[in-house]
Specification:
Blueprint (H helix, E strand, L loop, with lengths): L2 H7 L4 H13 L3 E5 L7 E5 L1 H25 L1 H25 L1
Antiparallel strand pairs: 1-2
Protein backbone atom coordinates (compact mmCIF):
# COMPACT_ATOMS: atom_id res chain seq x y z
CA UNK A 1 0.00 0.00 0.00
CA UNK A 2 1.25 3.50 -0.75
CA UNK A 3 1.07 6.43 1.65
CA UNK A 4 -1.42 8.15 -0.67
CA UNK A 5 -3.72 5.11 -0.65
CA UNK A 6 -3.45 4.88 3.14
CA UNK A 7 -4.25 8.59 3.47
CA UNK A 8 -7.29 8.17 1.26
CA UNK A 9 -8.53 5.11 3.16
CA UNK A 10 -8.35 6.81 6.55
CA UNK A 11 -9.36 10.20 5.14
CA UNK A 12 -6.32 12.27 6.07
CA UNK A 13 -3.81 14.30 4.09
CA UNK A 14 -0.86 12.41 2.59
CA UNK A 15 1.52 14.63 4.57
CA UNK A 16 -0.22 13.61 7.81
CA UNK A 17 -0.07 9.94 6.81
CA UNK A 18 3.63 10.32 6.03
CA UNK A 19 4.28 11.73 9.51
CA UNK A 20 2.32 8.88 11.07
CA UNK A 21 4.37 6.38 9.06
CA UNK A 22 7.58 8.10 10.24
CA UNK A 23 6.56 7.42 13.86
CA UNK A 24 5.45 3.84 13.15
CA UNK A 25 8.66 3.15 11.25
CA UNK A 26 10.77 4.52 14.12
CA UNK A 27 8.97 2.13 16.50
CA UNK A 28 9.53 -0.84 14.18
CA UNK A 29 5.88 -1.35 13.22
CA UNK A 30 6.21 -0.65 9.48
CA UNK A 31 8.85 -0.48 6.77
CA UNK A 32 9.00 1.57 3.59
CA UNK A 33 10.24 0.12 0.33
CA UNK A 34 10.26 1.00 -3.35
CA UNK A 35 7.45 -0.37 -5.46
CA UNK A 36 8.34 -3.36 -7.59
CA UNK A 37 6.10 -2.34 -10.51
CA UNK A 38 6.56 1.43 -10.23
CA UNK A 39 9.89 2.26 -8.60
CA UNK A 40 8.77 5.87 -8.11
CA UNK A 41 6.21 4.80 -5.51
CA UNK A 42 7.05 4.23 -1.90
CA UNK A 43 5.17 1.30 -0.43
CA UNK A 44 4.46 0.54 3.23
CA UNK A 45 4.46 -2.90 4.83
CA UNK A 46 3.59 -4.03 8.33
CA UNK A 47 6.43 -5.69 10.19
CA UNK A 48 5.82 -8.44 12.77
CA UNK A 49 5.39 -5.96 15.68
CA UNK A 50 2.88 -4.03 13.55
CA UNK A 51 1.01 -7.21 12.72
CA UNK A 52 0.88 -8.08 16.43
CA UNK A 53 -0.42 -4.59 17.27
CA UNK A 54 -3.07 -4.86 14.54
CA UNK A 55 -4.23 -8.20 15.94
CA UNK A 56 -4.41 -6.71 19.43
CA UNK A 57 -6.59 -3.84 18.12
CA UNK A 58 -8.85 -6.31 16.29
CA UNK A 59 -9.21 -8.37 19.49
CA UNK A 60 -10.17 -5.27 21.48
CA UNK A 61 -12.75 -4.30 18.83
CA UNK A 62 -14.25 -7.80 18.94
CA UNK A 63 -14.49 -7.60 22.73
CA UNK A 64 -16.12 -4.16 22.54
CA UNK A 65 -18.56 -5.45 19.93
CA UNK A 66 -19.53 -8.36 22.18
CA UNK A 67 -20.02 -5.96 25.10
CA UNK A 68 -22.26 -3.74 22.96
CA UNK A 69 -24.36 -6.68 21.79
CA UNK A 70 -24.80 -7.80 25.39
CA UNK A 71 -25.69 -4.30 26.60
CA UNK A 72 -27.96 -3.16 23.76
CA UNK A 73 -29.32 -6.26 22.14
CA UNK A 74 -29.15 -6.96 18.40
CA UNK A 75 -31.99 -4.67 17.24
CA UNK A 76 -30.87 -1.61 19.17
CA UNK A 77 -27.27 -2.25 18.18
CA UNK A 78 -28.25 -2.48 14.49
CA UNK A 79 -30.15 0.82 14.71
CA UNK A 80 -27.25 2.49 16.49
CA UNK A 81 -24.77 1.26 13.87
CA UNK A 82 -27.00 2.56 11.08
CA UNK A 83 -27.13 6.02 12.69
CA UNK A 84 -23.40 6.03 13.30
CA UNK A 85 -22.81 5.07 9.66
CA UNK A 86 -24.93 8.05 8.59
CA UNK A 87 -22.82 10.31 10.80
CA UNK A 88 -19.60 8.78 9.41
CA UNK A 89 -20.72 9.38 5.83
CA UNK A 90 -21.66 12.98 6.57
CA UNK A 91 -18.33 13.65 8.25
CA UNK A 92 -16.50 11.91 5.42
CA UNK A 93 -18.13 14.17 2.82
CA UNK A 94 -17.40 17.31 4.83
CA UNK A 95 -13.83 16.37 5.65
CA UNK A 96 -13.04 15.46 2.04
CA UNK A 97 -13.75 19.07 1.10
CA UNK A 98 -11.03 20.16 3.51
CA UNK A 99 -8.35 17.87 2.09
Amino acid sequence: MTINVLADVINIRPSTASKMIDHLEAKGYVARYRGTVDKRKTMIALLPPGIDAREQVHRIWREMDADLVAALGPDELRDTRERLEQVRQLLDRRLRRLR
